[in-house]
Design a protein that fits this description.
The protein has nine helices and eleven strands. The protein is an alpha/beta fold. Strand 2 and strand 3 form a beta hairpin.
Length: 288
Amino acid sequence: MKKLYFLFLLLTGIAAHGQSPKELRLWTGQMPNSNGIKTSETYADGGRVGNVSDPSIYLYEADKEKNTGAAVLICPGGGYARLSMDNEGHKFARWLASHGINAIVLKYRMPNGNHEVPLSDAKQAIRIIRSSAAEWGINPGKIGVAGFSAGGHLASTLSTHFDAETRPDFSILFYPVITMDETFTHGGSRSNLLGKTPTKEMEILYSNDKQVSSHTPSSILLHSDDDNAVPVRNSIDYYTALKNNGVNASLYIFPVGGHGWGFNENFRYHEEWKNLLLKWMQDNQIIP
């Protein structure tokens, strides 16, 4: 009952502030890579969801009059322990849709000791978007991924560990966890994804700056210089790897802001990052 009541409040709040999304289950039948979570999802203020074991996507379709054909799969952050579904998900999605960009918020499963779980959900979401592109008014060659913090790690993992079917066409990364090197990673994200004592091979595999190739999609990264949770070096190293491999990339480092600002309008550079993102998408011919 608590779960149903929260879902009612969440969807009611979304409707009150704009377009209501369509929720679609990510998997039908047996899900791959079980995370072993048996307890119910937990909810906290701000739309934060924990113990995710039943993944889904929330589709925000752009108005037909404004539809650019572009789409963005959004991965909220939360240290691979929970998801900031509102501040780093639904609010961003509604804003994208208002600018003619179809937005899909991913409620992905927590790894809970199985590092393959989040990526398998992200790949499945891309498959669904591509297979539904005609129905949803989406250009199958303009499907990108966005992520915040640990969600930025998932988005950059999808951008470096893809196959022909699941490669994003571009990446939007907000203060992303990139490395699993314990000297400058986010400790909670690292341990929640890989466990307390991962092997060196696993650390390198999920240090996405080390997985960049010339086939990695073009990216924009946005970070604050005073981020004490996820050091800005994460974005700098990923940007450097992209440029070293001839991949188009842009990096914006704001002087202040800390971590986790998401779609918080109190963030000093809230309007600036929105304008920078739209201009970047225009310059890269993602939107007109």
